[in-house]
């Protein structure tokens, strides 16, 4: 897992270079289709990547995006009316039967269908109108890291060429260097705060909420910690009740319009006695974590997960686990 984290900048460089023709052609196809809405099809870490892309599309294109449950087709046998839409299916392996079935259904139902997968000869790639290979190389660790980042980068590159968004495309060009900086961010102070604890909250808003969901999943699968992800707004609607002295909280703030609100909630929970760590300088009581700032609100949020991956891999070993081989899990989950 550690080696794969360190490979992320090189994997992103390769993806942006070798995948450029796919992004240009896919963007042109989206402009021609002019979708009124987009649906995403994914599970697990791939679904968190899809959630990140949901925020990117809604913020940059102003088009609504909805996650479709694969069981609608695979279990319930119902096809959706998807004319005038695009569908983006995300799967590292491209072999989950329910993801493939939903992508096939979306294509039959009139959606312009994309597959983002690290396995270009997979059933999912064959099911889509357009397949975009993640080009990440083999990922041996059960916990996805470089393929998660690559899924988001591929989606952002597709969005950038669709919208002809020069600012986003420029931010993607500088992304490998940014992610190298993110790897170097030292989040070790958070590790000590998690000693003697089995539960924590991970907070975010906007694209950083998708990152919070991914972080909570990684805490569970690599460290055996019960981590719950919440919007920094939603956490005050009930979950804050159990936040008492020394309760650990990780608040993920990007340099975007939501940063002030995430910092405000971090300060409020710190005032309740929680041990709060936040990726923002706009706090006094909460403890600040270093971050790599990109200058673009979308890629800024993505860099946070790379810093987190280094932390969670080290934390897993600190807690006596093997982050590469978590119990009860396998690399490819073939749900129906």
Please specify the SSE layout and strand pairing.
Elements: H1 2-6, H2 8-18, H3 20-33, E1 37-41, H4 44-61, E2 65-67, H5 71-74, E3 85-90, H6 97-108, E4 112-117, H7 123-127, E5 130-133, H8 146-163, H9 166-173, H10 175-184, H11 188-194, E6 199-204, H12 207-223, E7 226-231, E8 248-251, H13 259-271, E9 275-278, E10 287-288, H14 297-318
Helix pairs in contact: 2-8, 2-10, 3-8, 4-8, 4-12, 8-9, 10-14, 12-14
Strand content of the residues, in percent?
5-15%
- N-to-C SSE series? HHHEHEHEHEHEHHHHEHEEHEEH
Rg over CA atoms, rounded to whole Å, is 19 Å
Strand order of the largest sheet: 2-1-3-4-5
The main pleated sheet reads as: 5 strands, parallel
Helix count equals: 14
- For the secondary structure, the number of strands is 10
Query: How does the helix and strand content classify structurally?
Result: alpha/beta
Can you tell me the residue ranges where pLDDT is under 50 for at least 5 consecutive residues?
Answer: none
Mean pLDDT: 94
Q: Kindly, what is the distance between the CA atoms of the first and last residues, rounded to a whole number of angstroms?
A: 28 Å
Shape: globular
Oligomeric nature of the chains: single chain
Instruction: Kindly state the percentage of residues in helix.
Output: 40-55%
Can you describe this structure?
There is one protein chain. With 336 residues, the protein is an alpha/beta fold. Helices cover 49% and strands 14% of the residues. The strands form two sheets. A five-stranded parallel beta sheet has the order 2-1-3-4-5, sandwiched between helices. Strand 3, helix 6 (97-108) and strand 4 (112-117) form a beta-alpha-beta unit. Helix 3 crosses helix 8, helix 4 (44-61) packs parallel to helix 8 and helix 8 packs antiparallel against helix 9 (166-173). The two termini are 28 Å apart. The model has no long low-confidence stretch (mean pLDDT 94).
